[in-house]
Amino acid sequence: MRKTIILSAMMLCSLLGKAQEAQEVPKWINNVKLSGFGIAQYQYNGMNNNKSNSFNLRLGRLALDGRILNDWAWKAQLQFNGNTSTLGASPRLVDLFIEWQKYDFFRIKAGQFKNPFTFDNPIHPIDQGFMSVAQSVLKLASFSDRAGAHPSNGRDIGVQIQGDFLKTNAGRNLVHYQVGVFNGQGINVKDADQQKNIIGGVWIMPVEGMRLGWFGWTGSYARKGSWIDDAGATINGVRSLQQRRYAVSAEYKVKDWTIRSEYVHSTGYAFAKSLSNTDAAAATDCNLSADGDKAQGVYALVIAPIIPNKLHAKARYDMYQPSDGAAKQRTQYDIGLDYEFTKNLALSGIYSHVHDRSMNGPNGKPNYSMFDLELSFRF
Questions:
Q1: Sign of the Cα pseudo-torsion (347, 351, 356, 360, in order)
Q2: How many CB atoms are located within 10 Å of the residue 219 CB?
Q3: Which of 27, 185, 191, 300 holds its CA 20 to 30 A away from the CA of 150?
């Protein structure tokens, strides 16, 4: 009887062990993390003949990220707001990539992710500090791109290598590089002209908190459709507009202070109508914009702690010229405050004075004001 009881107990333990093994969760699933953020916004715009004030959901995103085999990191991120046209529909995929991270000095990333262009572009929208990235970044780094591409949140599809090297005795890297090959068409769209964009940058970090960077961009943006040539004939096919861009950047972050400035220059023609809907006439309109092939912009900002890690004052000078010369120059002067209830909850207010020379004329007023209030959270 005693032997029977012992054998039964051993069998029960064996069965329980096998059941536990069958229900064991794969290790890579345990590494998956859910995160996200949301920004609720109120904005007043005093533009002449187009005044508005509205509550808005500026951004809402959910992301999953994790690791596979220790050396591989991946991320998938969805955006749940934005315009509701075909290419900007909500929800939409903004990030989907995997990166091999075995070595600090050489990492490989593939998928859809941020273009490696400017310091402002990859900063988290909440940490960026203002109602939007600077105008030069907005127009020349694949947000609402000057060339006419659909809004792409500064991203494209491609492959990139990057890394950090030359460590100090304290273990801090002195040099960072990143360079990638991309379709050049923005997010969620295949290549149209079989030419690729090469985008990259390098920066040095001579002292703690300081970055001095240089970026370059060469490639094209293309559409398939029709246009009228100089002789008045209608041409059908794929029209590629070459794009050459560069940026010079500097940033210094120390003791909750942030000082950052960038100059961005672009050479390349743009389509007359920006693409927001694949079913709209703009999707096949390959005529050129009247703005020519030159654009440039510069911004400089400072974010200063009043109460460190809690209350900040901020100011930004932001100038953009969409064409050669200053005839259509738009300059925006921002001042504001933000208050961090916790690191995951913040309130920010920005007042902007805008001087837009393109609005000069008998019915236009180049000067107007904007006010932006944002409550942001993340998890």
A1: positive
A2: 23
A3: 300
Measured at the alpha carbon of residue 350, what is the angle toward residues 328 and 125, in degrees to the nearest 5? 85
Q: What is the mean pLDDT of the chain?
A: 91
Q: How confident is the model at residue 4 (pLDDT cuts 50, 70, 90)?
A: very low
Alpha-carbon dihedral of residues 190, 124, 147, 44, nearest 10 degrees?
Answer: 130
pLDDT at 181: 98
On the question of a cis peptide bond just before residue 91, with omega within 30 degrees of 0, the verdict is yes
Taking only the tens place, the pLDDT of each residue in 259-289 is: 999 999 999 999 999 987 777 778 899 999 9
Amino acid making up residue 364: G
CA 195 to centroid of chain Cα atoms: 22
The residues, ordered by sequence, that sit 6+ positions from 58 with a Cβ below 8 Å of its Cβ are 39, 40, 41, 81, 125, 374
Identify the band that residue 31 occupies on the pLDDT scale cut at 50, 70 and 90. confident
The rounded distance, in Å, linking the Cα atoms of 74 and 1 is 57
Residue 206: alpha-carbon gap to chain centroid: 26
Containing 12, the helix (H) or strand (E) segment is helix 2-23
| Residue indicated by tokens 């187009």 | 50
- Give the pLDDT score at 85: 56
**What integer pLDDT is reported at residue 12 of this predicted model?**
43
Cα–Cα distance, 173 to 5 (Å, whole number): 65
**Is the Cβ–Cβ distance between 233 and 246 less than 8 Å?**
no
Give the pLDDT score at 7: 44
- CA 138, CA 151: separation in Å to the nearest integer? 9
